[in-house]
Amino acid sequence: MQHLHRAIEYLKKEIIREAGLVETNLRESVKALMTRDLELAEEVAARDHILDELEVEIEEECLKIFALYQPVAVDLRYLVAFLKLNNDLERIGDLATNIAERAVSLSVKDLLDIPQEIPSMSEMVQKMLKDTLDALVDLDGSKAKNVMRGDDRVDRLHHSMYRIVGDQIQADPTHVGNWLEILAVSRYLERIADHCTNIAEDVVYMVDGQINRHQLSNA
After folding, report:
1. Are 118 and 126 in contact (CB under 8 A)?
2. What angle do CA 92, 57, 202 make, to 5 degrees?
3. What's the domain count of the chain?
4. Angle between the 48-69 and 73-107 helix axes, to the nearest 10 degrees?
5. Cβ(26)–Cβ(126) under 8 Å?
6. SS3 letters for 127-140?
7. Range of the domain at 212
8. What is this structure's pTM?
9. What are the average pLDDT values for consecutive 10-residue runs of the chain, which has 219 residues?
10. Quick one: pLDDT at residue 74?
11. What span, in angstroms and rounded, lies between the C-alpha atoms of 190 and 153?
């Protein structure tokens, strides 16, 4: 039993390390986009393989613990949550890389005034991710539930981007490709918010066994 708990504690530290790398990549990808920093965007994109390798290592460690110790009750719940958390963190990392790739592309094109909705969404999403990670570290179910409630605000901003981009393309069709890339960034941020919500739900599951997916109104 002591070996099992030590293995779970090690996994938690690796998940937190993965989460820290994801948080850095997201922050720097958005910064690269807003400042047209080609070098920073390329650095973020180049780091993606590190997260991919860590995600595989964590998954393999989880499966090894299942095979060796056949955990039950709370330990089983933790491991199931770790597997799901690991997947969501890897997807956020991929989406941060996608933003960095759009930043690379846009940095060498005509300068456009990026709508305020993009930095606003970015700020919300980065706070969601930070609060989610804090909830994970502290195993704080209440904080996790607060994160889940923030998803709707990001969704509303993302939906407004369709109208904004449509108006811009209609006004100046010569930059249609640029505006579609900016719309893609909005979509990536909206998806990151969804993954943050998934992680928050998994934290609640780890803390009290409550499955909140599709039950936000009862959270």
Report:
1. no
2. 50
3. 1
4. 170
5. yes
6. HHHHHHHHHHHHCC
7. 2-218
8. 0.90
9. 88 91 94 94 93 94 91 86 92 96 90 89 92 87 89 93 94 92 96 94 82 52
10. 84
11. 10
| CATH classification at residue 46 | 1.20.58.220
**Crossing angle between the packed helical segments 151-171 and 141-149, to the nearest 10 degrees:** 30
pLDDT of residue 218: 43
Name the residue type at position 153: R
Sign of the CA dihedral with 53 first, then 126, 134, and 147 last = negative
Question: In 3-state terms, the chain is what percent helix, strand and coil (to 5)?
Answer: 85, 0, 15
DSSP output for 11-36: HHHHHHHHHHHHHHHHHHHHHHHHHT
Enter the tokens of residue 208. 């009290």
d(CA 20, CA 10): 15
**Angle (CA) 138 140 146, round 5°:** 130
Comparing CA positions, the residue from 109, 126, 82, 125 lying closest to residue 177 is 109
Report how far residue 92's alpha carbon sits from residue 204's, in angstroms, rounded to the nearest whole number.
19
Cα separation of 113 and 71, whole Å? 54
Residues contacting 81, CB < 8 A, separation 6+: 202, 203, 205, 206
Which region, left, alpha or beta, applies to residue 214 given φ > 0 means left and ψ of -120 to 50 means alpha? left
